[in-house]
Amino acid sequence: MVNLEWYRTFKAIYKTGTLTGAADSLFISQPGVSLHLSSLEAYVGYKLFDRTGRKMIPTERGKVLFNAVSEPIAKLEDVEKNFQKSTEKLTPTISVGMCFETFQTTLEQYVSTLPFNLIISFGEYPEMLDQLDKGILDLIITPKKGISPNIEHEAFSSEQIILVGGKDVDTESFRETLDTKGIEHAEEWLKQEKWYGTTGDMEHLFQFWIMNFGHKPNFRPNYIVPNLNSIIRCLKGGTGLAVIPNFLCKNEIENGDVKMIWEGEKKLENTLYFGCRKKTNYQSEIDHIKGLFRKVMGKNNHVAHL
């Protein structure tokens, strides 16, 4: 089935004469416009525009299609505007992408207070950056910056990746091994313990191990659980080790349910960014969510000024 957004994009290209102009009028990225157009051309089975430099010149079939869909699209847009005025004007919907653990630790507690509709999306960071660029997401929380010129990144906090364990882990034994026998023996000590990992990526563990021991870990975690918050709950049982961001277990460490075992010989820190398109219809809603994140995380973490 054809996506009606393809027709809306087709009309915008026809009216503006450029992919950039269409992107600006629709508040989506140029790659998103290109994707819509190529999808529509594949669906109808013929070229709709000839590309001459930066100009998009409609083909004869493109002109026929525009004459066929222009009026129906205009009517649908009028219906949409009237519908929004009567039922949606005060409740716009924005889509936000982040990792599951970040949502649980920060935004989840405020969802019921939001004065607008919200769709939360979980996924890998490269995927979220791509969806932001294409207009599928309106805001993402990410430790990685993309390269799209349509996206701006704002550093707002940082996370330190640390080694934590259950309260029954013999921390003194580890420190004595590290201080008296050195880093290689400390690595062997750690490998003898039970380890937790997640079904997602193991990037935190890999980065921590490479930074401190010079290579990737040559062992597999004993227990694989759904997410990092699951790991924290498991560690409260008293045993086991894991490498996780410090902000996820701050309260558990302060309460003595989980121990901070080691920060590493070299501290591993990630800067956290807000990512959003430079042009958006939802700036006030995005600013509202940014404020909630700063409220939860900003006062406890150093903000990198980049």
Overview of this protein structure:
The chain is of the alpha/beta class and 306 residues long. The protein folds into three domains: 82 residues, Arc Repressor Mutant, subunit A, CATH 1.10.10; 96 residues, D-Maltodextrin-Binding Protein, domain 2 (3-Layer(aba) Sandwich); 109 residues, 3-Layer(aba) Sandwich (D-Maltodextrin-Binding Protein, domain 2). The protein is built from twelve helices and eleven strands. The strands form three sheets. Strands 3, 4, 5, 6, 9, 10 and 11 form a seven-stranded mixed β-sheet that branches. Helix 1 crosses helix 3 and helix 2 packs across helix 3. The longest helix is centred in the first third of the chain and has 29 residues. It is elongated and about 80 Å long. It starts with a helix and ends in an 8-residue tail after the last helix. The C terminus is likely disordered. Keywords: DNA-binding, Transcription, Transcription regulation. Belongs to the LysR transcriptional regulatory family. This is DNA-binding transcriptional regulator, LysR family.
